[in-house]
Design goal:
Immunoglobulin-like, four-stranded mixed sheet, alpha+beta, 264 residues, 15% helix
């Protein structure tokens, strides 16, 4: 009888130890893979203003950071106003309001949302990087303006010439130098903001070999030592209009001149 009682006690102790180890193991696994307790946006607040045509990636912070089953689902309450993809990238589509929601797929109660207001940004400035242009008659030239801000929804401009007898301009900003004179080219924002910029264009006559005057650098230095009488004579014989030379005074170079040395 005593032997049986000892065996029973031994079996009970063994069973108790086994159960304790099982419980410890369960707690250990649970501690290593806790559930999500909180989710919040890390780069936006509960409200966000966006402009049509722009995008913004929303990111979230999950607590604890080692929570299991962290897969996030994204939703938009109004896809006509703003859409969101599976990576949290929000695209502003149309003026209005939409709620962007991120939630834990396995714990639908764990979620966060942001109210997105979409507006249309108009052009605030139109500018040209150069102040004027000089063109030969019969030539083409294109100059496009800078339009800001970069996130303006409609950055198109329309072009106009103040004198189409001198210069014409097409819808792409390409100018044709039609006749001699001066004209002003104006680019105006097409979004109704009335922002514009302009620059003057002067059209001169065609430059031909007979109208151009060529100057030899320090004489015809390819045939004779530069800045020598021989170099200047050879330049005149070759048909150059003039020659450039250095003017020295007191052993110092004062200036560089282009002077006519030869007869017309």
């Amino acid at each position: 009888m005593r032997c049986s009682m000892k065996k029973l006690k031994f079996l009970l102790r063994t069973a108790s130890l086994c159960m304790a180890f099982i419980l410890m193991g369960t707690n250990s696994v649970s501690a290593k893979t806790p559930k999500v307790k909180k989710i919040k946006f890390s780069n936006v607040s509960s409200k966000k203003t966006m402009y049509r045509g722009t995008t913004k990636k929303f990111t979230v912070k999950i607590t604890p950071s080692k929570a299991k089953k962290r897969k996030i689902q994204w939703y938009s309450s109004n896809k006509k106003v703003a859409t969101v993809n599976s990576k949290g990238v929000v695209t502003a589509k149309k003026n209005g309001k939409a709620y962007i929601t991120a939630r834990i797929k396995s714990q639908k109660s764990k979620k966060v949302r942001c109210r997105v207001t979409v507006k249309t940004k108009k052009v605030s400035k139109v500018s040209f990087n150069k102040s004027k242009a000089v063109l030969q008659q019969g030539k083409y030239y294109t100059r496009k303006p800078s339009v800001s801000p970069s996130y303006a929804y409609n950055k198109k401009v329309t072009y106009k010439s103040s004198n189409t007898k001198v210069a014409t301009v097409n819808s792409s900003g390409k100018i044709y130098a039609k006749g001699q004179g001066t004209a002003t080219i104006t680019a105006t924002a097409a979004d109704g903001s009335k922002k514009k910029a302009s620059y003057p264009v002067r059209v001169i006559g065609k430059i031909t070999s007979s109208s151009a005057k060529f100057v030899a650098h320090r004489g015809l230095s390819s045939e004779a030592p530069e800045s020598t009488v021989k170099a200047f004579e050879l330049a005149g014989d070759a048909g150059f209009w003039g020659a450039e030379t250095d003017i020295l005074s007191d052993g110092r170079m004062w200036e560089v001149l282009t002077a006519r040395y030869f007869s017309a």
